[in-house]
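Lab channel / #folding
Pinned by the channel admin:
"Please post every new chain as: sequence first, then the structure tokens as a reply. Keep commentary short and put observations after the output so the thread stays searchable."

First post following the new format, from NK:
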Amino acid sequence: MNKRSLPHKIVDLTPGRRIWLQTLDLSWTRHPIFGLLEVDVTHPRRLMAAHKAKTGEGLSFTAFLACCLARAVDEDKTVQAYRKGRRQIVVFEDVDVAIMVENQHAGQRSLMGHVLRSVNHRTFPEIHREIRRVQSEPPPAGRGMPGWYRSLMLLPWPLSNAAKTLVSWASRRDPAMLASMAGTVDITSVGMFGGGHSGWGLTTTGRSLGLVVGGIASKPAAVDGRIETRDILSLTVAFDHDVIDGGPATRFTRRLVELIENAYGLDVAVEGDGKRAGSAQPMPAPSPTIG
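Reply from TO:
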């Protein structure tokens, strides 16, 4: 038997990666529903491009999606409900959106979690400014992670397994604990898709509702009886089937797509027509059939 060792090196996992691996063990929803969508984002991207050409400011696409997501959830908050024990669910009034932010400070880049609070009561410009602020400020201690959680997730095995069991039990008993720390919904961007290539992402989530943002690609679509090249976003919507059924999930998804394609919130932020960016009637746009 050839026991020759191939050239290699052994590298310790960073504390942040170890915490993330432990968190993934807590995240998988037992009975998920996934919706793989193609969403026409031509209209919002044109508005963003026009704003940048006029002002030099690049608008946050994540802020735009968070604005649309919060509006859709606000119309049916049961989609962000959580199980409490075996016989109850908790329905939160505020939509707190968890995102990942790449912080850039003093020439260093670091990835950290951040929760946008009460997004259903805020405008797109407010959300955009918060994301840009977090991206430019020094990262907080523990990158925003509670110290007690960080300590538990870094315990050596088998204490780490006991800690995960404890956190899982406490979260099911009191979902408000989880929501106060990690938000009620989340948005995850999958970096492997880009450069004009389409593709969907599937990932674990500790929330009852999450969006996984894939790639944006130019594709032919039928608009008003003619074929046009449109910017199509691959978007995954993940639900917890324990608290949401197919009908409400379908209606929520339809409303979310409508808001995104109609550039909800962006029309006011970019064109400044004097209306509130969170108005319930977004600017109309063509609704294409994907070809």
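NK: Confidence is low (pLDDT under 50) at residues 273-291.
TO: also worth noting, The chain is about 35% helix and 25% strand.
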